[in-house]
Amino acid sequence: MVDLSEYRGIFLEELEEQLQLIEDEVLRLEQIGETEDGIQQFFRAAHTLKGSSASMGYNRLKEVTHHLEHLLHQMRNGERQVTDELIRLFFQALDGMRSLQSEIAAADHETTDVSELIQRLKTFGAQGLHGHDRGPAVQPNKTETPLQLFWLHVWLSPACEMKLPRLHLIDAKLRDLATVLRMKPELEEIEAHDSRVDGASWMLSPKRNIEELRQQISSIMDVESIYIEEVKDSSLQPAEEKNPAQPEPESRGLPDPLEALPATADKIKPQTIRVHIERLEKLMNLAGELVIDQTRFHLLNRRFHGQYGANGLTEELGQLADHLSTITRELQENMIKVRMLPIEQLFNRLPRMVRDLSYSLNKQIELVIEGKETELDRTLIEELGDPLIHLLRNALDHGIETPEIRRSAGKSETGTVRVAASHEDNQVILVIEDDGAGIDAEAILQSAINKSIITAEEARYMNEDEALRLIFRPGFSTAAQVSDISGRGVGMDIVRNDIERINGMIDIETTKGQGTRFRIRLPFTLAIIRGLLVNAGNATFVIPMSSVAEIIRTAYGEIKTVRGQPVITARNQLVPVVWLHDCLGIPRAETTASSIPLIILGRGEKRLALAVDTLVGNQDIVIKTLGSYIGKSDSTSGATILGNGKIALIIDTASLFFKAGSLV
After folding, report:
1. Helix (H, G, I), strand (E, B) or coil at 99
2. 229 classed as catalytic
3. Which of 47, 66, 67, 153 is catalytic?
4. Is 63 a catalytic residue?
5. Are residues 346 and 419 in contact, defined by beta-carbon separation less than 8 angstroms?
6. Predicted TM-score (pTM) of this structure
7. Could you state, in chain order, the average pLDDT of each consecutive group of 10 residues for the chain (664 residues)?
8. Is 394 a catalytic residue?
């Protein structure tokens, strides 16, 4: 027997896909009502999960999907209509399946008691359109009809990674719909000899119309094509076996029903494959090492040119270096693209959450999602989940007012929350905004004073933007009471930390009475970035180019002092100056130069001038984590290996702004 545990990862991927499809369809049912396509999609998802969970031995999940499928079958046949009670039951079934999914993923075992849920599904399924039990079906008078036999040939998609479970599912379905007399090859043969077989054939006598049987089997996931031939003689052999010129394929050693496929049913080759993420991570690491070696190769090339001058050997070496750079860049770009995923899979979690919270808060809220197709590194998508959900919950709880308050303010009773993603200047922009009450900066200041986050003296010098950013301080909250949704005095500082940890930046805009907007800027990927190399003291450091607004050189005399803080005037804006040496505890080198290079860092509308000794240049940087042994540093976010083989620390620019505090 084949060990089905090898299919567990594939099953879990399919389970997540089908549960998300079911959630989308239930939400659509609630919002716009029943559609034929929607019910068909819903039915097919439940049907697929029933078969795959049965094949994998997850019986509780199989039972839930079986009774869910029964309700959907009634809807497809026009026996049942959408009601609020039915929608609630669908959501309860979905929650039960989600619980089972978590248990299967964590321990490969179902522990949730779904007996009560199954009983509710059974009871509801036994009720008619008006809630009454249906009586026993009236059996029509039957007349004897001649027995019809057919060979049913089924081909699975080449992209199907669960072929044996799929064949188990098809076999079980056929035995429900027909009397099966024979299967070629038998499931036991497939398990014992070749579990990768692409299809099988069944000789059967259908209990219903043969075309209805065809439709039922066609609806099963990964079934690519079906061919049916009627058995017209006593040999009971499929047509292709009578052709002596048609040998069985030697590669399998088993009868192959695919040879009987008509010319019109030729396969479409699969355009995608599934690859384990660990393999992609390994390839990305190797590409990163190649980037480092390519940089070192260029340095060696320049040294050879400097030492030996231009000759045939050095020219050939230069051409090889240029070609290596081109190939490395293309490999790097394509590896980054392979890691990219649409942000849709993150956004898909939001509609259900908004729906449930709207009910619990007694608010009317419309969720608008834009830019689902925007691509982002899969690692960033995973890291964004918690911050995004927290911002959205705050918008629903604190931002959107109750219908009564909105009505009295002359607004629509239904509030709107918008979540949008887009590409901008080689970055990904994520926006979460609402048309709610906005944030009162004065209330923010007073709450911060009351909680001893700032002093009254500090509050006196804060402008509105500085006051708003106090919400990102640890322990800050303006909630009148603690709730299960928000207001526990924690959260927004975690949101900021999570975003800055992935080299992102978050800004806030608000208008009292009109709404609030959070704007998050993120890099495309965390694996390889463009970095500016600088020297401070006797060491080289890297500044992420995504944080660099511009680079200037200014005379020492142009640096002024305001309230004890060095500043310069850049583009009619007063910009604080900090020395990288001071941030890292490095002694400043003595210099006789009359000017100093300044890197103007940007964070939203804020600017900060970073003073360094010299500028080296910019290049692609492969980020390496510092590891748990070193621990987290306040001023660095990682390290990289330079072309000369030395290590350079990557500066965490967000920490520089934080240290500058109210000066920026």
Report:
1. helix
2. no
3. 47
4. no
5. no
6. 0.65
7. 65 88 92 87 87 86 92 88 92 93 90 92 76 40 59 87 82 83 81 71 85 85 87 56 35 39 44 73 82 83 85 86 86 82 89 91 94 87 89 92 94 95 84 93 88 86 83 70 45 82 84 92 77 91 88 90 87 88 86 87 82 88 71 76 82 80 55
8. yes
